[in-house]
Write a structure and sequence with these properties.
Strand content: 5-15%
Order of helices and strands: EHHEHHHEEH
Oligomer: single chain
Structural class: alpha/beta
Helix content: 40-55%
Number of strands: 4
Length: 140
């Protein structure tokens, strides 16, 4: 039986996963692992609102039905673990704090992002490639 993981997906991972036509890309593999049940996405209302706003931007070629499908799937597969406040932590973009705090709310979870420099240097903050390596290591 495969080891399962909990992770907050940064918006840039979803955008990359949906944008690429390459099923071997790391962000796409992360999203596929969500659909396969290996990764349980963590979110809260603010994260879903950001996903919705960003994925619906005119600059992206995403069809509204595709955006709805992905968001509905994330909401039905994932969980809202709450939010653990952090103090004295600097974030280049204050809108990123919620992603980090939701990841901290579930023990053993990860924050998967393409922008690790936007978050504290913590072992829970990983790139899609690093997350794939962690999953591979535990499910070898």
């Amino acid at each position: 039986m495969a080891v399962k993981f909990f992770a907050v997906l940064d918006t840039n991972v979803l955008v990359s996963a949906m944008f690429t036509g390459n099923p071997s890309s790391n962000p796409r593999q992360i999203l596929d692992l969500v659909f396969e049940g290996i990764i349980t996405p963590l979110f809260n209302k603010e994260i879903i609102e950001e996903y919705t706003e960003v994925l619906s931007r005119d600059k992206f070629p995403f069809k509204p039905d595709d955006v709805s499908f992905v968001l509905d799937a994330l909401k039905s597969i994932g969980i809202d673990p709450g939010r653990t406040s952090v103090d004295n932590t600097e974030f280049p973009d204050p809108k990123d704090i919620v992603f980090y705090e939701v990841a901290l709310s579930k023990e053993g979870s990860f924050l998967v992002t393409g922008n690790t420099k936007h978050f504290p240097k913590e072992p829970i903050v990983v790139t899609p490639a690093e997350m794939l390596e962690i999953i591979k290591k535990f499910n070898a």
